[in-house]
Amino acid sequence: MLRLENLCKRYPTGDEALKSVNLEVPDGQVMALIGPSGAGKSTLIRCVNRLVEPTSGSTRLNDLELTGLSRRRLREARCRMGMIFQEYALVERLTVMENVLSGRLGYVGFWQSWFRKFPAKDVSEAFRLLDRVGLFDMADKRADELSGGQRQRVGIARALIQNPELLLVDEPTASLDPKTSRQIMRLVCELCKERGLAAIINIHDVLLAQMFAERIVGLRLGEIVYDGPPDGLTPDVLTDIYGEEDWSETIRAVDDDEKENGKTGILALDPVKEPTQQTPTQV
Ligand SMILES: Nc1ncnc2c1ncn2[C@@H]1O[C@H](COP(=O)(O)OP(=O)(O)OP(=O)(O)O)[C@@H](O)[C@H]1O
Ligand SMILES: [Mg+2]
């Protein structure tokens, strides 16, 4: 369980990005965080792992109070939280395998990592994860030879090899085409279910959020203005979150999509093929 209590962030510029946010995310829950640009979505995610230092309030991950940890303890705590980024944040000149193994850097010693010597069990776990995300045959490819979808799969495997309790995901599909976006969202959600992992996924695409997340939290100007199920996102609620617009098209798009796919389970659309059956062109 992740618990945020009265979390506030005021940047030195005076921007009040989070205004006393209270939020609980139980184990195994996939939550989408939506809201207009500047609402504070990235700030919230980054306050959790303290890439951004909260101004006040408390953040607890299970038994551990994250605010106030020393640098060393924070490094250990960050191993418990996997992060997936919009721009993948891979090391371009390293291989897929090396990028995945870099997720273990919080665990292996400095010299081991300097010589890129990882325990055999980490390497076999990396292969297992690459298989799961559909990249088994690409372990030796350099990151700069991959497509966007493939890069994000590496980012997912790198986050999971940490064996985290929580996934923090910031705009995972913003640089991807619509089909790849769905595949990536589906993969993240399936992996969370398989591992009982909680996730906060920042996402601009309301339709994707509704399709894949079991809970939606809407943020506006640093405050939570909606917290509920995907089908509670009525035009009025969307207006609360984003402001005045015609939301009927968005709502209709979800309805159509569900009808087209015989409804409704979140994972019922275009099921992911077994990773071993995937070819690079499908990514
Ligand atoms: N490093 C920073 N210094 C000062 N102000 C910042 C900084 N980062 C973010 N802000 C401000 O905090 C507010 C929230 O920004 P944040 O990046 O968290 O929003 P967001 O919801 O992630 O937006 P987007 O959808 O565009 O990514 C904005 O007003 C932004 O200008
Ligand atoms: Mg952001």
Structural notes for this entry:
The protein is an alpha/beta fold. Helix 6 (148-160) packs parallel to helix 7. The longest helix has 18 residues, at 178-195. The model is unreliable at 262-283 (pLDDT under 50). The protein has a domain at 1-80 and 198-283: P-loop containing nucleotide triphosphate hydrolases (Rossmann fold, 3-Layer(aba) Sandwich), CATH 3.40.50.300. The strands form 2 sheets. It has a 6-stranded mixed beta sheet, with helices on both faces. The chain is 35% helix and 20% strand. The relative contact order is 0.16. The protein has 10 helices and 10 strands. The structure holds adenosine-5'-triphosphate and magnesium ion.
* Ligand catalogue: adenosine-5'-triphosphate, magnesium ion
Beta-strand percent range: 15-25%
Q: What is the helix/strand order?
A: EEEHEEHEHHHHEHEHEEHH
**Discrete helix count:** 10
Largest sheet: 6 strands, mixed
Overall geometry: globular
CATH homologous superfamily caption of the domain at 1-80 and 198-283: P-loop containing nucleotide triphosphate hydrolases
Share of helix among residues? 25-40%
What is the mean predicted local confidence, pLDDT?
A: 85
Please report the total strand number as a whole number.
Answer: 10
Low-confidence stretches: 262-283
- CATH top level label of the domain at 1-80 and 198-283: Alpha Beta
